[in-house]
Design a protein that fits this description.
With 256 residues, the protein is α+β, with helices and mostly antiparallel strands. The protein contains 9 helices and 8 strands. Helices cover 34% and strands 15% of the residues. The strands form 3 sheets. A 4-stranded antiparallel β-sheet has the order 5-6-8-7, with helices on both faces. The model has no long low-confidence stretch (mean pLDDT 94).
Amino acid sequence: MKPVIIDKEKCIGCGKCAADCVSEKIKIIDGKAEFMYDRCIQCGHCYAICPVGAVTMANYKDYEEEKVFDVTKIDSEDLLSAMKSRRTIRKFKDKEIPLAYIEKIIEAGRYCPTGTNAQDFAFTVLRKSVPEIEKECVRFFRVAMKAASPIKKYIGNVTIDDNFFFKGSTAVIIVSSKGNTSACLASSYMELMAATMGIGVLYSGFFVGASKMIPKVKKMLHLPEGHSPVTCLVLGYPDVEYQRIPPRNKAEIRFD
């Protein structure tokens, strides 16, 4: 089946889909748009731009039409202040995050841009297994800290307490992939979405490292074949309140 189907009865031959096709696989023939089935990346630009809704994405099932939101309605200064105000959270309240919130955070990640529309990442949500996985990681790191291990130099003199990796959180999302870039982009989208719902995020780099060093832990994650953890988003309602935005060095910028 062709990934893009054009309803010839609805098509008005405006040419917008052809002009915006990334792969240049849509042509206007006899006043109607014609999809040429070859190397389509299924980006959905043709679907998004069609003024009469004549385009269907055949490989995507049960999707509902959503109108584009005008992002210019968001005040740029407010958005910048919100992004500057973001803090990594390491103290969480003893309060469960509703599953619907977690799903919405993942939905934000699902729509991040990816090369050739690959969506080459997966999401693993940890809830019930958090205590068991953390216990295994803590045990491994404590043993390593007593030995002549590179981990000791990596961590420094930080205390490995029982909540070292997840800080008492009850919801963790692992974003995994065969590469890095797409998963990192998805994680950034997810963190912003979490913030709008009052949910704090800790990127637990220590856990990502631990999951790669401890075969038992990686097995417990049940990742897709060939995937490795790229980011670990530890979620929770903040039990800390920050009053001001800390300083940063000026950006290093070079103009041609």
